[in-house]
Amino acid sequence: MTPSLDGSEPKTIAVTSFDGCTLVANLFGRMDKGAIILSPGGGQTRHAWSGAAIAFAREGHFVLCADLRGHGDSDRAPDGAYSYHDYAQDALVLSDWVESQTGVKPHFIGASLGGVAALMAAGKIRQDGFASLTLVDVAPKISEHGFGLIRNFMLDTAKNGFENVSEAAAFLSKHFPRPNAENRSSGGSSGLQKNLRQGEDGRWRWHWDPAFVETLYLEPEEFERELTEAAKNLIIPVHFMRAGNSELVTQEAAAHFRDIAPHIYFTEIKGAQHMVTGDQNDIFVNAALEYLARPELRRTPAGK
């Protein structure tokens, strides 16, 4: 089967992961140039990728973007237990599904937690799980201070929620100002609503399980050790994008990554903060497409 989706309206599908957890995904585009998986960051849903997915689809790529486990419409983890290894296994399950449908191994583009999962998958579980790997503001070393700020922000708002979507948007603007917000792929307040759900009490809360924040990255030294080991084991083509104003991936962290994995291709998106795909979406898409157009990365479906 070779998927073909005309226009910008996605098709929604569900994929069962290794432990029975259902992952919900949107499909865009058609198999002309290759297949791409887009994996969002922690606290985001698949809709954060919609603008980028449409742009990739218009260039001839078949695109899948899925909600991470515990996020959006995907299942929450059994017993509220989340691990980076589980997210990595999910990434490989999605890759296998795309390959079974298209006949080609997909390129994987992961931001933040989605990138961490793919890095661990390609470096610790299956080295040839993807055709290539693009990591968006993800590196083995991350700023503990920057992560702590984001983690506390996510936990502080997870339980109390907001009176309405506008209050949530104002809160985000105050704590995470984004000078290039006009380029946000999520589409402003209407897009933000897709990252929220309204509870029985009428208040709006993030569309993810607070348990994932409470259980991940509790041991930063072990986190760095595992990702450093994974980075050293990478054998597939890797594109490392750093946000120029990243609060998580410092210039020192970027240099460390390039030192332990010297074959990676490096791009810095100037003026962007950690959420590169929102701050500088057009620049991100162009940089990703330029990389995927490299001759060594071109793939055609089996039998063509």
Automatic annotation (TrEMBL):
Hydrolase found in the keyword field: yes
Domain AB hydrolase-1 span(s) in chain numbering: 35-276
Region entry Disordered, spans: 177-196
Keywords, sorted A to Z: Hydrolase
GO molecular function: hydrolase activity
Biased composition (Polar residues): 182-196
PANTHER family, alphabetized: HYDROLASE ALPHA/BETA FOLD FAMILY, PEROXISOMAL MEMBRANE PROTEIN LPX1
Protein name: Alpha/beta fold hydrolase
Organism: Hyphococcus aureus
